[in-house]
Amino acid sequence: xxxxxIGIPIVASLAAFILILLALLAGSRxxxxxxxxxxxxxxxxxxxxxxxxxxxxxxxxxTDSSLCDGIGGFLGRTCTSATAAIDSLQSDIADRVNDIxxxxxxxxxxxxGIHEFYSLHALTICEGDYAPNATTSGADRNVxxxxxxxxxxxxxxxxxxxxxxxxPYRLTLADLGFTDELQDAIDTLNKVLKAFTALLIVAxxxxxxxxxxxxxxxxxxxxxxxxxxxxNLILAGAALSFMVLSGLIGTITASIATDKVNENGxxxxxxxxxxxxxxxxxxxxxxxxxVTFGYWLWQFLRHRNGKTMDPxxxxxxxxxxxxxxxxxxxxxxxxxxxxxTRR
Length: 343
Ligand SMILES: *[C@@H]1O[C@H](CO)[C@@H](O)[C@H](O)[C@H]1NC(C)=O
Ligand SMILES: *[C@@H]1O[C@H](CO)[C@@H](O)[C@H](O)[C@H]1NC(C)=O
Ligand SMILES: *[C@@H]1O[C@H](CO)[C@@H](O)[C@H](O)[C@H]1NC(C)=O
Ligand SMILES: *[C@@H]1O[C@H](CO)[C@@H](O)[C@H](O)[C@H]1NC(C)=O
Fold this sequence. Notes:
By secondary structure, this protein is α+β, with helices and mostly antiparallel strands. It has 9 helices and 5 strands; from the N terminus they run αβαααβββααβααα. It has helices at 7-25, 48-56, 73-98, 108-112, 156-166, 180-265, 276-304, 315-327, 331-342, and strands at 39-42, 117-120, 124-131, 140-148, 271-274. A 5-stranded antiparallel sheet has the order 4-3-2-1-5. The protein binds 2-acetamido-2-deoxy-beta-D-glucopyranose (4 copies). One 2-acetamido-2-deoxy-beta-D-glucopyranose (NAG) is lined by residues 155, 157-158, 161, 183, 187, 190. This is Actin cortical patch SUR7/pH-response regulator pali.
């Protein structure tokens, strides 16, 4: 078998390190690799359902009054007035939001005091508006600000709630129809993302070390090949494991959260999407790290079979081992080779 150049793991681990570092840093500053988010929430339609209540029905939406049927006396009257209170609360909100009149959906978020999108990155939550507008297909994202997510939590609801409360209508998320299921999905996402980012940071560290060790191997192999190969194998293996782990957690979480939010947010005008760019750079980095790991594993096995990576290694020795391959397994010969390198 021919030698594989040591340039392979150096280039592969360097490229993997750059990609995984970008995956970590994407979105860390407003507008920096904004498209490389894990999950983005499109909030430009929030509140749309309230406007429709006012426009489509002359009467406020009838709350299921049959709920109170069959309950007599005081309890029945309480039940009826309770549902009436809910009706009037709903139409009150609808009236307030209807101040917006027939303005286009595009301005809704703005009028409510929130932004049109909220995007989750490894380290941050960014918010901003679509440009030129939310309904244009393939609209760009114009980021206004980014908040620390890893240290302060990825609770999008808290940001929305704050925006709504200080907004002109002083609404809450509950007013917009945010359900507990929706909040549960966001809370779960919040928790898992922290674990994901922690793993990603460790993965970045090991990938960096693996890259440095591959470069150091250039110098170290003539001195102590066994140690250099072993250290590289361990570092590449650790980098690969943490990268795969964080990649799987990120991919699976983003996918489940997106489904849950779309399922529960559909009727209140909330939608979400997974970031494909993010997935691509993460999994390409995994592929590159797999190449690096594969290279060192191959060298490790070769070394155990008594072959050396050192190009200045004894000529005779190198020829011998190639011949031994050609002649098949000759036990005494491979035994000699083995003990020579093991020394
Ligand atoms: C982005 O937002 C800023 C203010 O938040 C605004 O001044 C700017 O015009 C927007 N850019 C685009 C392309 O819409
Ligand atoms: C959104 O922007 C596009 C392109 O600028 C424009 O054609 C369209 O009318 C806008 N839609 C709304 C609702 O403003
Ligand atoms: C955001 O959501 C609105 C309303 O739900 C939809 O019309 C619009 O196409 C979406 N925009 C993007 C960029 O996903
Ligand atoms: C997130 O924010 C919402 C709204 O402020 C709040 O109801 C919810 O409890 C928060 N979740 C966590 C996990 O802090």
